[in-house]
Amino acid sequence: MIERFAPRNTKLNLLILIICFLSITIIVFLAIKSNDDIQNIVQKQFSERQLLLSKQISSGMSEFLNEKTTLIEVTALHISDASPDEISTEFRNVYNKTSGIYVFEYLNESGVVTIGYPMENTPFGYDIYKFDRVEDNETERTLIDTFEWVRDNRKTTITRPVRLLEGGLGAFIWTPVYKGDEFKGEILAIITISEISDKFLKNYDPPWDIHMINDRGEMLYDSSYIYNYGEKHPDALNSTDILMQSILKNQTTGKEGIGYYFENGGHEKKLIAYSPVIWYNQNWSVAVISPASEVNALINSVYIKQSLFIGMAVGLIILGSFSIILLLSRWSKSLELEVAKKTGELNKSNRLLKDANTKLNELDKLKSDFISMVSHELRTPLTAMKVSSELLLEDDSKPASRKELVQILIRNNDRLIRLVNNLLDISVIESGKLEYNKEMVDLHDIIDTAVGTIKSQYEKKRLNIRTDIPEALSNINVDKDRINQVFVNLLSNALKFTQEGGNVEIRASEFEKYIEVYVKDNGIGIPPDKIDKIFNKFYWAGNNSTHQPGSAGLGLAITRGIMEGHGGSIRVESTPSKGSVFILTFSK
Ligand code: ADP
């Protein structure tokens, strides 16, 4: 039963280990699979964030520039009918109320700067017809061209940012001033790029890099200061860079988007998000740039977190599995112990049952032995008595034989009486009801009496009997008649089981607390396998040939009962065909 637990337990453990292994495999597989998704999601989110930033910057800037331009147009309406002083006051008011405009200039209908604010930024008296210069070197548009185009089209126009005489870049806003159909002049307001970049582009720290270019790819702003103001962007980069070229194309045509390009000879990958600034006829593009490694760092940090989570999950699975295995093994161990205990108990009760059964069988056998023994022991003398009685009845019997018949009657009668007495004795002894009339007696007397009782039978069988009892033996407190019965029993057994001419000896020794008496013969002895049983009632150790008539196997049982009833004991030592010695112990 115990063995059956072990393999079942191992199988269960194996199953748990397999489930544990499968769970770990699934988790790791899912983790690897989700890595790609994570990478895509992070990349997408990162670039979207960058695009959003570029949109925020460009829309803020567009709003700002358009608002300023509208303000200039409104001012142009206001001053259509105003005196030079009024125009000057208007310029001052507007300049002070708003920010970001470097200078307001008023050119009269002949193209001469007549009014301006602030004064220090105004080139009073500047006549574009006298000091014309090429303002736009690509289309070769001159100040005059622009002045006349604005006058003729009655529309505001803005020039590409150009280098100012005072330094830096500036965008020129030209607005016509009409009173009805009468051309009065134009307002020329300059917004410096440094003003715009201070407001919108400078507030971003690394990893962000902010660029702004115009529709010709000229650099208007570069937070990393790699490019100079007005420098042409494609020239500064590898012109064969296809990625960069397509990005620049999108930027210069007013599109928004995201892209990658390489810097430093292709070693450094950059993510760029760009968004247009639409301002009247101007088309600029704000770009937010970050190193691609930034995304990787982000992805790696996600991976680290994911790995940590997976590690924890795997750890938990392993821990859980081993805890279950440990728990199961403990549980099964306690179960095994319990089973072992119960098995032990069962075995014990089985043994007890077996013993009880054996005892019952023995008792059963004893019962049938007893019946057959007693019936035999009764029938033999009764038959002898019946035959003798019938012969006595016959008249023709001689007196001599009549005497013999009467003797047979008496002997068998004695034998019956002895048997019945023995049966009575054993039943009284076993019920514990035998009463002893104890008195202090001298063992010499008892032994002499017993020897005297049996002497004639010993002589008949020519057995030598010798007594060797120390003179000064203490008296003992016993029932004289019952102890006499003990000695007669032992002596008649010695008589029965000793061949003619044999020796029987009675010796005694006194010890501090007890006296031992030895009844020794050199008869047939008792086989070792039977020695333990001879004190049982109805037991006789010999075979039918050695069985003596009149012995019902009760003598030694009665003898032991009497000895124990006196607080003493009897034991035997014997060697087959050498003889036996029965040792009586009397406590003093
Ligand atoms: P019984 O009354 O029939 O003699 P006991 O109880 O006295 O029965 O003896 C039981 C058996 O013990 C005897 O049948 C005999 O086999 C054995 N026994 C007893 N005394 C001796 C002895 N002195 N020598 C050999 N065997 C003995």
The CATH architecture of the domain at 438-587 would be 2-Layer Sandwich
Oligomer: single chain
**What is the alpha-carbon Rg in Å?**
70 Å
CATH class of the domain at 438-587: Alpha Beta
- Distance between the first and last residues' Cα: 57 Å
- Please tell me what the overall shape is: rod-shaped
Largest sheet: 6 strands, antiparallel
What would you give as the CATH superfamily of the domain at 438-587?
Answer: Histidine kinase-like ATPase, C-terminal domain
What fraction of the residues are assigned to beta strands by DSSP?
15-25%
Question: Brief overview, please?
Answer:
With 588 residues, the protein is an alpha+beta fold. Helices cover 52% and strands 21% of the residues. The chain has a domain at 438-587: 2-Layer Sandwich (Heat Shock Protein 90), CATH 3.30.565.10.
Structural descriptors:
20 strands; 11 helices; five-stranded antiparallel beta sheet; six-stranded antiparallel beta sheet; 588 residues; binds adenosine-5'-diphosphate; Heat Shock Protein 90; disordered N terminus; alpha+beta; single chain
